[in-house]
Every structure is written in structure tokens, then in C-alpha cells.
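Supplementary Methods, section 5.1.

A reviewer requested that the exact input to the structure prediction be made available. We therefore reproduce it here, unchanged from the version used in the analyses.
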Amino acid sequence: MTTVRRPTIRDVARLAGVSHQTVSRRLRGDPTVSSMLAFHIDQAVAQLDYRPSLVARAMRNRSTGRLALVLPAGNATSSLPLLSGANEAAREAGYAVEVVSLPAAELRGNRVVELADSGLYEAVLSLTDLPDPPRRRTDTAPIISAPVYDEQMRDIGPISEATRMAELVTHLAEHGHRDFLHVTADREHPACTRRREAFERQIRELGLRSAGTIDCRGDADRARRAVLDLPAGTPVTAVLASDDTLAAGAVRGAVERGWRVPEDLSVTGWDTHPLSAAMIPSLTSVAVDHRRQGAELLVELLGILSGGDPVMDRPAITAILWRESTGPAPQRAREA
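The structure derived from this sequence is encoded cell-by-cell as follows.
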């Protein structure tokens, strides 16, 4: 078996025609390295695909180049792109990210503190709220809490931001819709709760009418049934769903009733499922940029480590994608 040796700093120095001390100074960003030497060193680094050893870096600088990203135990579809964005931002800054998943009991205990005290990480970023930690030594890695999920791995914070729901209602009202139905995945879920509250608030403020909110428990067939159960002659012309799965169920229910989407019923979703653009009709939905959220969290963490302040106001990570499932309200009464 052939073992491929990783290039070393001395290999870079040999190819660039300089000493390994000069390469080390360039990698540290030393401004005294001339531009010509820096150019040759950068070329050698790129040609050899050289990556500094984390072990050597730790021995030299008492730093590890590693960041711990703490998540609650559980599943959230948003976590994969979020972690991907965080990983990419960390890599661009010269760090490696390690994801640590902890059950609620360990989040409330000393496990996060143990991570910070281990000497393995330069910082610990928790994506959920943490209780006040016990007294710690002053020479351990900082712990920063940036709540994105609750202890049950449910979306909170910017991911659950619901102002787009008000925009959906307003846009449809401007196109003649007056009677709405909301189907939600889970009344107890923080993100679903915020979307429902935004829906109900905008209905009241605009003087519109709601046929209520139906808890479909994430089941597309329940959303389908919600549309089928609307009474004959119902005035409802728009169904707003808390996710694309329920919206697809609502579209199915409309088709089974003989209604056309959007001519007879407009339907909106949330979270832009990959298939939502391929549906017939394509589904109006709210896109959530989880990857950007993860990247921004890592950049903020690194800024705080450098002495900066937390970012208090960022552009929203959501945007409405208007597609074929929404249109003007019908001009004539429908028959069930």
C-alpha cells in the first residue's frame, strides 16, 4: 500500500526558493515579507495544495484552529445547509468546525463547559440557549450562545422569522382575496406559532376574513382534507400553509374538488421544498437561506473573538418566491 505524504512547510519553502522561516512569516501575514517573495510562496502553496498542520499550529501558537458548534440532539431539515454555510465560512477563515450534538440534559449541565475547558477548541458556539455556566477558569475557550434552535431542535430566532406571512396576506388581498384559510404543521412549534400569529394579525389589520387555522401535524393528507372539508359555496379563495408539504396537500384537495389553482384557489407554502418549483402549478413559497445564516453566525463568532460586538441588525434570510399557484381572486362564486 502506498502512503501519500502531505506537503510540509519545508516543501513549500523548497519550491518557492526561500527559507521555511520566511514561509512561516508569510503564512502568519507578516507584512515584512516582500511582495515578490509573497507571490512565489503563494504560488508554491497553491501548487502543492499545502494545508498547515493543526497540531503544529497549536504547538506554535497555543491555538488549535478548531471551533466547536453545539447543537441540541434531534433533527431539523434546516440544520444541514446551515452547517454547510458555517463550515464554508470557517474554512475560508482558516478554521475547522466540529459539530457536537448534545441532549437537553447535557446542554443544561456542564458538558459545554467541558468542551471549552478541553483545550481542543478556540471557541464554542452554541446554537441554542444555554443556562448561566458555572465559574470557569480564565484561560479556557469562550462560549458564545447564538440561539437558532430550542432544546428540541425546533427552529427559533431568524430561521422562524414570520414577516413574510404578512406580505403574503397583503399581496393576495391587493389581488382581491378576502377570505383565507391557514393550515399549520404544528400549533406548538415556535416557527409555526409565529407564522400563525402573523397571519391572524394581518387578517385583522386589513379587515379580511379567516376560516380559521387547522393543525395538520405536518401531514399533507390532513391539509388535503382541510380543503375538501370546506363547505359548499365557501368564500375561501386562498390557503396559506406553514410549509410546502401542507401546501402540496392543499393543492391536491383543490384538484379533487374540481377547482383550478390558482384560478379558483390560490395556495402558498414555506421553506421551498426542492419539488415545489416542479409542481404543476409551481408553488409560491418562502425561501429561507439557511446556508447564509450559518455563514453569518460563524463570521459573527470570529468577529467577537477578535473583540468585535455582536451584529444586532441583519438583512432577513427569507424571501417570497412568487410562482404559478397564486393569482387574482376569482370573479364569480364557485360551486363545490
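The chain has three domains: 9-52, 66-154, 159-288. These observations are discussed further in the main text.
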